[in-house]
Amino acid sequence: MATSTIEAVVATPREGKFNKNAARRVRVSGKIPAVVYGAGQDAVAVAVDPRVITKILHSDSGHNTIFDLNVEGSAVVKAMIVDWQHEPIKGALLHIDLKRIAMDKMMTVSVPIQLVGTPVGVKSQGGILEHVMREVEIECLPNDIPSHLDVDVSGLELHGVIHVSDLPHSGSIKFLGDEHATVAHVTSIKEEVVAADAVVAAPAEPEVAKKGKTDAAAAAPAADAKDAKKK
């Protein structure tokens, strides 16, 4: 499960204007601006320690980690990270969104898929293992969120395919989307070369280095997020 023994995240409420200068002052003080929302409550602008957030993001369960959130002046609640932004050059955290979690309500999360073993099709048949789907969307209770899903590919032969339906299922989680979608397959080297030759070069679209927002309530203190994107 994704519930972690990580220390509680302490958040200090922010007041006043939520603009570029205010966000800069928060970062100069050694913290980063954040927004807390969800569970039918109002969004709250806060400041948090980036070191604690980085520790959570680098833990086994990553952004799916559920932790205690202590917003000063309010009761401690369970929360998780649903959005974060990094400075593009140095990689420093600039802004995060935290969502309050109701432990008795089902939620949707994306969980990493890890391939275990070396396929027969690679060992003795000259194939190449291609990991097509690296995360899968599931629905479950917060306490049932797995840190990752392992799938054994050692028996996979040349042209063999692992589908979402082949992932470990249990009564505690529900897979969303197409269960026939390809997770991994073993292809021949010749097929890989032909596929590469067929690709037509095109200008790359710029990527947005952040997770997508999942709750409209986060729009209230949007000035911080806009500031972070300009940096």
Question: Can you offer a commentary on this structure?
Answer:
This protein has 231 residues and is α+β, with helices and mostly antiparallel strands. It is built from five helices and 13 strands. The chain has helices at 20-28, 50-57, 120-123, 189-198, 222-230; strands at residues 9-13, 32-38, 41-48, 67-71, 77-86, 93-100, 107-116, 127-131, 135-140, 149-152, 161-163, 173-175, 182-188. It has a six-stranded mixed β-barrel with strand order 1-3-2-6-5-4. A four-stranded mixed β-sheet has the order 10-7-9-12, with no helix packed on it. The two termini are 35 Å apart.
Structural class: alpha+beta
List the uncertain runs.
206-220, 225-231
> Rg to the nearest angstrom?
21 Å
Following the backbone from N to C, one meets helices and strands in this order, namely: EHEEHEEEEHEEEEEEHH
Strand arrangement in the largest pleated sheet: 1-3-2-6-5-4
Helix content: 10-25%
Write the layout of secondary structure elements.
Elements lengths: L8 E5 L6 H9 L3 E7 L2 E8 L1 H8 L9 E5 L5 E10 L6 E8 L6 E10 L3 H4 L3 E5 L3 E6 L8 E4 L8 E3 L9 E3 L6 E7 H10 L23 H9 L1
Parallel strand pairs: 1-4, 2-6, 7-10
Antiparallel strand pairs: 1-3, 2-3, 4-5, 5-6, 7-9, 8-13, 9-12, 11-13
